[in-house]
Amino acid sequence: MTKDFKNETRGTSINSWLDSKHTFSFGGFQDPDRMGFRSLRVINEDNVSPGGGFAPHGHKDMEIITYVTSGALGHKDSLGNGSVIRPGEIQRMSAGTGIQHSEMNASNEEPVHFLQIWVEPNATGHAPSYEQVQLAENAGQKGFTPIATPEGGAGAISLNQDAVLSISNPVAGETVEVAVNAERYGFLHIVKGAVEIDGKTYRTGDGLAFEGLEQGFEFIAQEMSEVLLFDLS
Prior knowledge:
- The chain has strands at 2-5, 11-14, 18-22, 40-48, 53-59, 63-70, 73-77, 82-85, 89-94, 99-105, 112-119, 129-134, 145-149, 157-158, 163-168, 175-178, 185-192, 194-197, 200-203, 207-211, 217-221, 226-232.
- By secondary structure, the protein is mainly beta.
- A seven-stranded mixed β-sheet has the order 1-20-17-22-15-13-14, with no helix packed on it. The chain has a seven-stranded antiparallel β-sheet with strand order 2-3-4-11-6-9-12, with no helix packed on it.
- The chain is globular and about 45 Å long.
């Protein structure tokens, strides 16, 4: 079974400093048919103007992943962490029993573009924690590279959930295999570019949920692209 989540059906939040698009229900965008997919609860694509950002606010019991595609994002939290996240890095904040944080554009001159992803944890009450990792230089080349796993490790953050997030950066014409066990669930998100799957084109902002597939499938990059794959229990 597959289900499309097309860019034009995403929710939006726009103010003086933010232009955000929501694959799943978030904030003022509420759709009972789009409350997430398995443990994947949120994929927000945020464009934040120079000097703008999210003032300190709180979260509980959520694995919050930040993936910057351009610009620089400044992070501060109640654990005392302070950092700047740039392209080629990935950050994970486990809210656990409760945490306060802010996410601000680190520049007063350039916008920042990033994905914020929420994954429900495997249990409530984890201790809050923070992790920021530099991705491998060849991450996403010649297929998918895991960048978030339950164990973490070199080039990947750890998650309190049976979930794996991988990235692929195919060049135009490249064929990439999508392999997820038939007993698990998969979600593809097109960060940028365009890929073809079974004769259908998926472009920037599009998503595809799938489950129960007895064998994997392939996509063909129609141009240089960036694709995320969630492998979920």
